[in-house]
Amino acid sequence: MRISTGPVRWKQVCAVWLGMLPVNITTSWMITTLPWWGDVALPARSLLVVSIMAPLMTCIMMPFVTRVLKPWLLRHPGRARHERCLCEALDRLAESVPDQPGAGTARVPAGRISWENE
Predict the structure, then answer these.
(1) CA distance 15 to 23
(2) Kind plus residue range of the DSSP H or E element containing 63
(3) CA–CA distance, 110 with 65 (Å, rounded to integer)
(4) Sign, Cα dihedral of 83, 85, 91, 94
(5) In whole angstroms, what is the distance from residue 3 CA to residue 81 CA?
(6) pLDDT classification of 93: cutoffs 50, 70, 90
(7) How far apart are CA 12 and CA 69, in angstroms?
(8) Is 1 exposed, middle or buried (0-12, 13-18, 19+ CB in 10 A)?
(9) Residues facing 115 on adjacent strands
(10) Would you report the helix, strand and coil content of the chain in percent, each value rounded to 5?
């Protein structure tokens, strides 16, 4: 059983990709429009691009992406299956119980399930 407080890796990859693509396209477009950019050495260009993109991704884009995708990132498929099975089992149980006073009928007062004759 996997116990984790964060999203699964593939969802993290999707979130980073969704955040990085527009930042990368915009940054690349803006930087390449600079007339002197082609004369800068490759290591210096890489240093400048990373120095611009890392803070943009960390401080602006990823908090926005994780806030927007939070319901999807934290959804646990096993829990959803378990809840669905539990609801189906309770529905079957409610259908099988005779509707007679004192025969163990289920009542649901104020959001709780209680059983008579226990």
Answers:
(1) 13
(2) helix 62-74
(3) 37
(4) negative
(5) 17
(6) confident
(7) 10
(8) exposed
(9) 106
(10) 70, 5, 30
pTM for the structure as a whole = 0.58
Residue 105 structure tokens: 């009928």
Pick the closest to residue 6 from 99, 94, 69 (CA basis). Answer: 69
Tally of CB atoms within 10 A around 19: 21
Structure tokens at 118: 């226990």
DSSP 8-state assignment for residue 5: S
> Contact 106/113 with Cβ under 8 angstroms?
yes
At how many degrees (to 10) do helices 9-32 and 62-74 cross?
160
Calpha distance 106→35 (Å, rounded): 77
What's the token pair of residue 16?
């980073």
Asked if pLDDT for residue 66 goes beyond 90, the answer is yes
* DSSP code for 59: I
pLDDT of 118 reads: 35
Q: Letter for the amino acid at 71? A: P
54: how many CB neighbours lie within 10 A of its CB?
10
